Amino acid sequence: MTPFEFAQTVFDAQPFTRDLGAELLEASADGVVVALDLAPRHLQQHGIVHGGVLSAMADIALAFAGGLAMGSDAVTSEFKINYIRPVTGAGLLVRAEALGVTKRQAVVQARVFAGEALCCVAQGTIIRV
Q1: Nearest CA among 89, 90, 81 for reference residue 112
Q2: Neighbours of 13 (CB within 10 A)
Q3: What one-character DSSP code corresponds to residue 71?
Q4: Are 97 and 62 in contact (CB under 8 A)?
Q5: Any idea where the domains of the chain sit in the sequence?
Q6: What is the pLDDT of residue 118?
Q7: Taking the complete model, does pTM exceed 0.90, yes or no?
Q8: Was domain 3-128 assigned CATH 3.10.129.10?
Q9: What is the CB neighbour count within 10 angstroms for residue 14?
C-alpha cells in the first residue's frame, strides 16, 4: 500500500473529515495537500469562512503529514494557528509538511490558502498512537 493509499483509507474512515467535505489530494512522507470546496455551511454570520473550519482543515493536514513522516498512526497533541486574513471564495487548499521528526513525534507546519492568498498558518506537534 502506498502512503497515499494508506492516508486515503484513514481519511475515508473519519466521519468528521467526510462531513466537513475535505478531500485528500496528495500524501507522502514529504507532506500532504488537502482541499475543501466551500459551501454556505462553512461560513459564519459575516459571510466569511468560520475560523473553526480553517482550524479543522489545518489540524487534518497537520496530523496526516506528521503521521506519514513518522510512518505510523498519529494524532495531534497540540497546535496553534495564526489567522492572516478573512477567507471568502470557492475553496481552500492546505499544504502541510513535517519540520522535524523523532520516533515519537513530529513538529509540522500547515499553510492554508484561499486561491493564491495565504490566509492562515498553523504549527503543531503530532504524536504516535
Answers
A1: 81
A2: 9
A3: T
A4: no
A5: 3-128
A6: 98
A7: yes
A8: yes
A9: 13
Q: What is the pLDDT of residue 89?
A: 86
Spell out the residues 6+ positions from residue 65 whose beta carbon is closer than 8 angstroms to its own: 31, 32, 96, 97, 98, 106, 108, 110, 126
Chain centroid offset of residue 15 CA: 15
| % of the chain with per-residue pLDDT over 90 | 97
The per-residue pLDDT for range 68-123, each reduced to its tens digit, is 999 999 999 999 999 999 999 889 999 999 999 999 999 999 999 999 999 999 99
Q: Is-contact 112 52, C-beta < 8 A?
A: no
Would you say the C-alpha torsion 62, 121, 30, 34 has a positive or negative sign?
A: positive
C-alpha cell at 20: 466537513
In the chain the first and final C-alpha atoms are separated, in Å, by 20
Asked if 72 contacts 128 with a C-beta cutoff of 8 angstroms, the reply is yes
Cβ distance 124 to 107 under 8 Å? Answer: yes
Rounded distance between C-alpha atoms, residue 23 and residue 45, angstroms: 25
